[in-house]
Amino acid sequence: RPHLRLQIQISLFGDNDRLIVAKDVTRLYQLEQMRRDFVGNVSHEMRTPLTVISGYLETLVDHADELPKKWQRAIHTMADQSSRMEALITDLILLSRIETGEQTADDALTDVEALIQQICSDARALSGDKQHSINVEVTDHRLLRGDESQLRSAFSNLVFNAVKYTPAGGRITVSWSADREGAHLSVKDTGLGIDPIHIPRLTERFYRADPSRHKETGGTGLGLAIVKHVLINHDGSLDIRSEIGKGSEFICHFPKVRLVERQETHEEV
Ligand code: ADP
């Protein structure tokens, strides 16, 4: 027998009256779990044949100039589309793993400062000819208790999005700070911005503020869903502020109990 899942809502009236409503959401919870397992399994099954197709396509691309002209374009298009599909499957597998929350390495310590330095240096390579100025600002040097690989996925999705949605020459600032409330990782850009009506739905799978935009940028549409679930696994939350034509800021908040002082390690020589 499955565990009973209840959703409880408590409303307060006046000084002493309370209305408590308990709703049985067991079936809903099971369906959600089935959907997650199904997507995870299908993605896994698709990965192997796709790896074979991509492998052969790579060989064909390497020898494309030996083939008739009309085949060359077809082969390049097939190779592009198969790498898009590979990216999509990788993100689907990652999302279904993160969604369960079961494999989160919750005792690990992550050096966020070093992590964002690495991500930003990858982002500079991605920016290429667009020559964004990508800056890191760190005002707190403590470590964050949390799964480094999940945090890397979340932060790199935010930074790479900033690169994708910011025109050439724009500025991107990644900052790590803490105050009385907790720790904050902010990714701010001077890019295209997002209409406020889209903001509440941005972390849904495949939701896009402007579908024509993603054709040029070629993302999987799962980036912000991954960010959302990584934050749930770390008791965090996401704040999105944006203005069309001016830019956007994505802020990940973490509770302060997750901040841990660095221990200086003195190695014996
Ligand atoms: P995608 O792969 O389409 O980028 P995401 O889940 O990462 O998918 O983002 C969802 C949508 O949010 C994007 O399609 C885009 O419309 C919008 N978006 C995300 N980041 C930014 C940003 N920094 N500036 C403007 N729009 C953004």
Radius of gyration based on Cα positions = 22 Å
User: Average pLDDT, to the nearest integer?
Assistant: 92
Termini separation comes to 59 Å
Q: Could you give the order of the helices and strands?
A: EEHHEHEEHEEHHEEE
- Count of separate DSSP helical elements: 6
Quaternary structure classification:
single chain
In terms of per-residue confidence, which ranges show pLDDT below 50 for 5 or more consecutive residues? none
Portion of residues in helices?
40-55%
**Structural class given helices, strands, pairing?**
alpha+beta
Portion of residues in beta strands equals 15-25%
Q: What is the makeup of the main sheet?
A: 5 strands, mixed
Total strands: the figure is 10
Going across the major beta sheet, what is the strand order?
4-6-7-9-8
In this entry the ligands are: adenosine-5'-diphosphate
Overall morphology: globular
Summarize, please:
The chain is α+β, with helices and mostly antiparallel strands and 269 residues long. Helices cover 45% and strands 23% of the residues. The protein has a five-stranded mixed β-sheet, covered by helices on one side. It has a three-stranded antiparallel β-sheet with strand order 3-5-10.
